[in-house]
Amino acid sequence: MRDGVRYHDLTVARVTDVTPRMRRITFTGPDLADFASVAPDQQVKLFLPPPGRSAPDVPPLPEDGDLVRWYAAYREMDPAVRPYMRTYSVRAHRTDPPRIDIDFVLHGPVGPGSRWAGDAAVGRRIAMIGPAPSHKRVPAAYDWMLLAGDESALPAIAATLEALPAGLPVQAFVEIDGPAEEQRLDTAADLSLAYVHRDGAHGDRLVRAVAEHHIRLGLPYVWLAGEAATVRRLRRHFVAERAVPKSAIAFVGYWRRGTAQDAPPTSEDLADEREAH
């Protein structure tokens, strides 16, 4: 398929609770033999079966790679049988045997992703299309790195840290609910990690922690992800207050507070998408 995008039938091989609100689901399947990682922060589209169905029914990908036509066919499906499509980061990819881990944030039955993950069990089936890198903009060279996001960005942050070279100075800020959600993050880089406990104010404490951080000398690579409005505030801070070049900032809003993931994008979302690419 175009740009390396592939369709995969997946089966749950293992379910592990990393923290009270983060569940790691390991998937297997013969289609994973051709899965090729494209970036540490790579993303995939998961297709989750609607209630009452044991597996998702997904239109086949066109041979010519026309994803626009494919998406139109997906949207035209009967809503009663159309699977939920959600975007997730790949936490880990292994080849022998083929496995991928995806971490799901559990926040009750309010969304199809959390609801499915909360009931996940070995043998359950889903479908997947991907992978694709979540960010296109990476500086050709940089002296140090800063990563910031909430728990939805934590899988990509963890995978990125594992891929960094030894000794690279890195500052990471991760907003979570509280101490029980802290994870150990392994890296060969020179990491300074700050977990920011939300205390009911989503984004406020994360933005404040980043703004109060003493910035290093040299050219940074700033990576921002998580709730869209918070990511927007962080990016504006780095551009306006820290004079970081826009070309040195990669950013993406994984979700929007109070809005379903498949709701139409706002004008700010569209502007962010144009700027990111």
From TrEMBL:
Highest taxon above the source species: Bacteria
Domain FAD-binding FR-type: 5-138
InterPro entries, per the entry: FAD-bd_FR_type, FNR_nucleotide-bd, Riboflavin_synthase-like_b-brl, SIP_FAD-bd, SIP_fam, SIP_rossman_dom
Name this polypeptide is given: Siderophore-interacting protein
Annotated organism of origin: Actinomadura yumaensis
